[in-house]
Amino acid sequence: MMFVRLFITHWLVALVALVALLAFAEWLAPRFYRSHLEQMMTLMGSQSLELRSDLERGLRSTLTTAWLASLPLAGLLAGLMAWLASRRISQSVRQLAQGSRAIALGQYQNRLKVQGDDELASLAQDFNRMTEALEKVEQHRTELLSSVAHELRTPLSALQGYSEALADGVLPPEQAAAHIEREVRAMGRLIDDLALVSRIEAQAVELHPQVVAVEAAFQEALERYATAFEACGVALKLNPLPSSVALWADPLRLQQVLSNLLSNALRYTPAGGEVVLSASLQSHHVRICVCDTGVGIPLEHQPRIFERFYRADPARSRHTGGSGVGLTIAKGLVEAMGGQMGFESEVGKGSCFWFTLPRA
Ligand code: ADP
What we know:
The protein is α+β, with helices and mostly antiparallel strands. The chain has three domains: 107 residues, no CATH class; 64 residues, Orthogonal Bundle (Helix Hairpins), CATH 1.10.287.130; 149 residues, 2-Layer Sandwich (Heat Shock Protein 90), CATH 3.30.565. The chain is built from eight helices and seven strands. The protein is elongated, with a radius of gyration of 40 Å. It is found in: Membrane. Keywords: Kinase, Membrane, Phosphoprotein, Transferase, Transmembrane, Transmembrane helix, Two-component regulatory system.
């Protein structure tokens, strides 16, 4: 339908141009011819009216023959060009409409054919880029849903086990209640962490940055973790700090990052090991390191360690109680506060997680 309308419009435009050309030529040609005729007759010294009207008739019949021969051909050519142009536009629009329908149906894998390098081609390219982005979002969503379902299944089956044991009288009520409470707390933590991850990914974390003294922040973290480290037989040390270093950060979020790194260090460092907290100055940032003498991260897992729910050793990590998003959250928060995060690790020797934050 659109093709027919485009074709007729294009063709009509070309025909109007042809008719205008004809009208101008009809108007101008006899005038030019007559002035030329006058000059020729004067040169020849002839005043014959008969010769003059004969030559004018000759022009008339030449023009008519030329028009009759060329107009249908020009009309056909205009039709051909109109057909080609209309087909190109209507094909692109049809392609776009098909692509949009596929997206509306949730099919993101199709890509449009890009022809030429005009506006229609760049529209098709933009459309493909949009489809690619939507495909990634959809993939992301599906992965997230299946990970969440998987993560929730573990505490849920534990809860089911404890409640059955309680019903069968296999577990004393106090013991069952303690287990159930622990699992419920783990689920609550997981849900809070997930909500934070989604806010980080949507770049919607609320931050209240202010000047934070590194020493005070480290002391707060050490106090919070001293008992847990002692209980596990892991030494927690603080390297001497460069004098009066201050950061520009949200103090609560900074504590959350330190907590995630310290709890990981504790989780993956066997008794007898040690964890050292240190800070160093860079030109515009402060670099903070949490180094442990723990199990280390195998090389093949290192590139994916900051991904949501990625665990180097799933059985061990799940058993030791992490929600699997600790590093995702820590990195997201550091980046939201204008810093970067990374690590170095060697199996059997330990890991050093570092992050930078702007200096106050
Ligand atoms: P989890 O809650 O499982 O600890 P994280 O996102 O905090 O999740 O960490 C992801 C994975 O990175 C962990 O499962 C573990 O395999 C690895 N990891 C993190 N920190 C350390 C560390 N200090 N030493 C060794 N492995 C670590």
